[in-house]
Amino acid sequence: MSGYTVIGDWGTSNLRLFRVEEGRIVARRDGPGIGAVGRAAEAAFADTVAPWLADGTPLSITLCGMVGARDGWVEAPYADCPADAASWRAAAIGFDWRGAPIAIMAGLACTGADGIPDVMRGEETQIFGACARDPALAQGRRLIVLPGTHSKWALVQDGRVLAFRTVPTGELFALLRDRSTLGPKDAVGDAAQEAAGFAEGLARAGEGAVLAQLFAARAMRLRAGRSADWALGYLSGLLIGSEIAEARALLQADDGVTLIGDARLADRYARALAAQGLESQRLEGDACALAGLGYGGEMTL
Amino acid sequence: MSGYTVIGDWGTSNLRLFRVEEGRIVARRDGPGIGAVGRAAEAAFADTVAPWLADGTPLSITLCGMVGARDGWVEAPYADCPADAASWRAAAIGFDWRGAPIAIMAGLACTGADGIPDVMRGEETQIFGACARDPALAQGRRLIVLPGTHSKWALVQDGRVLAFRTVPTGELFALLRDRSTLGPKDAVGDAAQEAAGFAEGLARAGEGAVLAQLFAARAMRLRAGRSADWALGYLSGLLIGSEIAEARALLQADDGVTLIGDARLADRYARALAAQGLESQRLEGDACALAGLGYGGEMTL
């Protein structure tokens, strides 16, 4: 046996480890998120990787994500923007773990033109992975968007992250849906109604009054016969559309967009971008994360 | 005894009844909100008013607020905007209750210039009460704002409500403070820090990117040494400032503002309005509600 390496993405909710031999992923193991284990991270890692250690010490271990946060295993720094893949990799923190060299990748930090600072941990690995996989991203200017609980918008030029901004759209939507008086409690999953509400929300989003248009989710039901599913779609469209309009203005970017992430959410963002006249392409999140961790092989697992 | 009348404000959270004799309030009784009693509203009202009924049947009973909602006691209509006090009063629903004529006041409904409908129940009583108390509101054009869980912005001309808009700022702030990853869990009540955060939030609000500036509540703590109290103030200032900018643009109103409501909240709004160059005056909420219910006397209770 010629030995193996371990690469992994350890976020707040999940640990995903991949075993690589001769440039190919040969096994995968999942474990608890950093949010669940906190200071007990080392023990959780040891538990998850244990069956592989029985075959011998790995040649190297590379981890990205919240594992490097202050409340993670070992705090890794933030690389400052503008940052390219080389400066980001150089900021990783390395130490020896049971005889194997381990690297915990850095996050990214930036300060916006408006003086507001921002940070990410984990998404930068997908962004640099996307640049490694797609030559078009390593040349020219593009917005890379990772939609989610805390969406990340990164302005990338020639493979360097110039600036980025976090927009907590997914968290806000979940709060409004599950815990507010605006979120309908009686949605039945009517996809056509949801789509109609989503389109209406997108249309409203361009008007720059997101707070003053939230209440319509309720008022349109009371006064205009809209359904619960329509209201859910409306809230989603209004928030996503507003996020897009705000982030583009903030990053002063009229560039095309690359979406990375979950297919269903990327589809919603692609529709929202199209409603604002923006073309977008999509990349798969896992493939980008692995490429960012230095994996150049195929996605066999 | 020359008899007595009962006037009351019955909202989602509270029932407040006032007994009026010879043009003066002589007693007050409080009871449960409509949200707590729903279809059992009549029994709750009878319980609360019982000690007065022992003195004889009231000459009249007038109630405003959510008591007239679909899930209240008896559904009262919405008067359509533009609406003046006379057309609003005419839309009340009247019936006989144990020998006394009872009137449940109407709400107000409007459709914005953008086609979005809106409704209020209870706040219209304060608005028409304000117009009754303040001659300046019955002549000329003014914005009347009732800050709160669901802030109401009404554009009033010569005592007529032309249009209004609900902005759920208070609800959104409470969700962000209590249930989001942005709301600090370790605030200690440092008023100076809170005020500094509030001022920074107000300054950011004018930039029209409220969603993209929320995350700063967390990033400024991580990267710029701001405190938990600063972050709470920032969220409050960002939301209130954004509400003001959006509502003014939406109602196309550069007019002066009259604030009705809780003194502490009105003070925050007055500061936020001043930051956008708008003067404001304040009126006390209870006095306006009673005036809207036809009470012309002094506030002795």
UniProtKB/TrEMBL annotation, chains A, B:
Question: What's the short name of a Pfam family annotated to this entry?
Answer: DGOK
What molecular function terms (GO) are annotated for this protein?
Answer: 2-dehydro-3-deoxygalactonokinase activity
> What is the name of the protein in this document?
2-dehydro-3-deoxygalactonokinase
State the InterPro entries in the record.
DGOK, DGOK_C, DGOK_N
Superkingdom of this protein's organism = Bacteria
**Source species, please?**
Sphingobium terrigena
Alphabetized UniProt keyword annotations: Kinase, Transferase
Is the keyword Kinase assigned to this protein? yes
- GO terms, biological process: D-galactonate catabolic process
